[in-house]
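Input for the complex:
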Amino acid sequence: MKFVDEFRDPAVIGHAVSEIRRLAGPSLADRGRHYRFMEVCGGHTHAIYRFGIKDLLPPNIELVHGPGCPVCVLPMGRIDDGLSLAKDSNFIFTAFGDMMRVPGACGSPLQHRARGMDIRVVYSPSDALKIAERNPGKEVIFFAIGFETTAPSTALILMRAKAKNIFNFSVFCNHVTIIPAIRAILDSPDMRIDAFIGPGHVSTVIGCRPYEWVAKKENKPIVVSGFEPADILQSIVMLLQQLRGHEAKVENQYKRAVPWEGNRSALKAMAEVFEIRPYFEWRGMGFISQSALRIRESYAAWDAERRFQVPGVRVTDPKAAQCGEVLKGVLKPPQCKLFGRECTPEQPVGALMVSSEGSCAAYYNYDHRRSEALTNIGAPA
Amino acid sequence: MCLAIPAKIVELLAAEESSAVVELAGVRRQIDTGLLGDDPPRIGDWVLIHVGFAMSKISAEQALDQLQALTVLGEHEAALEEIRGYEFNQSTSGNERGQT
Amino acid sequence: MLCDAKIRFRDSQIEMAHGAGGKSSRKLIEGLFAPLLLGPSSGPLGDATYFETNGTRIALTADSFVVKPLCFPGGSIGGLAVNGTVNDLAVSGARAEAMLVTYVLEAGLPADLLEKEVRAMAEAARIAGVSIVGGDTKVVEHGKADQMYITTAGFGSPIPGLTLSASLVRPGDRILLSGALGDHGITILLARGELDLEADLQSDTRSVLPLIERLAVVTGPGIRWMRDPTRGGLATSLNELARDCGLGVFLFEEQIPVHDEVRGACELLGLDPLQIANEGQFVAIIAPEYAEAALDILRSAPDGDEAAVIGEIREQPLGTVLGITAYGGTRVINMLVGDPLPRIC
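Predicted:
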């Protein structure tokens, strides 16, 4: 696969790994400094586990998984709200595959489907609109999730629905924005992150400029990174170079796909359809202001929240769930008291167990058993 | 939010606005190019696909630059090791190549 | 006695995940069916079981076929039903001799469609060398049975030279795979038409009995355990092995054959080829001294050029399947939970 295989080539990876070891190794300058890098985006978390990247890094580089998993940070109540909108047999509820197993207080979308609701997985919001066109007698709801990578596609589809007068289609909008999430991490008093591996695909839309305050005001390096192993490792090289040179700036490692200025068309479509909510609840992080999108008045006819009664269900996670601390990198997943016991991927209690790229689920599925098994026989994990 | 994959534009669909067919590894899918309105892609262009939409064009030159930069990293390291070895030995035994 | 059996199945309702072949399926089978029907002393559950009567050992298997669409590139439900049954017996060390077949038909099913499937079944049985000796038919109302469901019962005789059990697996044993993964599952996904993907792919459905019989002749003493990775994929089968033998199952990810189109579709949809169903492949755990000869046999078969040694068994980590990436990194490979779902994150 072009533009993929070359960035997975073991020879190329080898070069990046030796450079990381050289830069991160003990020297007079840093006396074996411990580095903590947060990868913001869930897609990076997934790639890190899939390619076994942690195994390639020297022990003094720690990767902390950030809050960029739109499924994980969605409050459970919003799932119940969404599903309640489609209780009538006249409704078709559509959502991405990622949402299907996420439990609301009354069960997940798949569980609701088993009870008879018409719930369909779509790969694209265009598919949801097509379903509406093909089923004129039904109401189709699209449960929209995702950061700025996905929001423009939802926006474009709403514009199409309006242009084509498709009225049996509406969107339940749960799009969130990445900058407030990064801000919340940095504002946290017990935050201990040295630098950021920035979200690559969100940046194809918003560009690199929105991260400048991270470097200038917070004095933390941030490198916008691609998702192949060579990309992630090269980004780590760039972060190490900045830190060793006492620099803090925004760099674009993913130049082949990310324009510095972002995608104007995509931003225009978002501005046309969406406005920023004054505040929105993030599971595990509480209410964050100006952190989510809602549909504008001009598109009210396609806004599921305006057209239908939304119960406004609020479900709080048990106090014992320490999602917030794990999200900020203060705790590692196994340090949360519920990890692996009350909270597992099959019975998730908190946000980070819910999707396979949530840090707790990723750790549980791709790290936990290996570490545990090695611990059982007394070998170092 | 993050799963996006590079694919090549193999067909532009005249009948539907902003529609194209892409191919990757022999798999073909119709996608929406509506987000690339400022610089519509042409047949042969590579684009990044996310949820059935082209998000940006992929630059082959930038990709090549990046791979070259990565390859040089390792060579730089090998050269440095050699130099380090010499420096070490000049202050002690003198003749043998050192090991780092 | 059986009424006192401990039911560990706690879910309140049955869902699609319970039929996907992964973790949820195991929970249902091991937590409800096995304790009540098989009794507390039943050992690890395999694809087939052995039964002794009047001094003769016979292998038995049961299977059900629910596939949508009924007909897909490379095959259809009729052929799938035969091959699936023959394969379950073959990987359990038995040659299929006879089959019983049950058809549950939906009212409104066109007769010519039914005839096509029955012909496909007859042809597959002829090629596989198994006799269909009887069966049953029921018709249910329109709207049930997705046009048709087929269930089978297969009976076989033990293949000489094969003694198979997870308990025979040893550190150092090699993991042998007959061919490329994921063709069937991705073909079906594409054939459903919901994802708008097109690719030149077809199901790999076939009987693997001839291959296994040849392996038995030449390398029989070295074969410890086999499975056909159907629903749930290779990841699920190997997790079952890891759990049953208690050892570490290591996969060299670069050695695992996957066709480009399967790789492409999986990348696009965020799926893992290791969790996708196969209908014409099998995995065998084989003693190292027999591995090369076994590979030669597999490769000499038609469509066998992709057969490969894809891993090995190690002492540690206990009961875990680990993938070794091209760079020497490791990742735990998990059993499927429910149906593989496309993801966007």
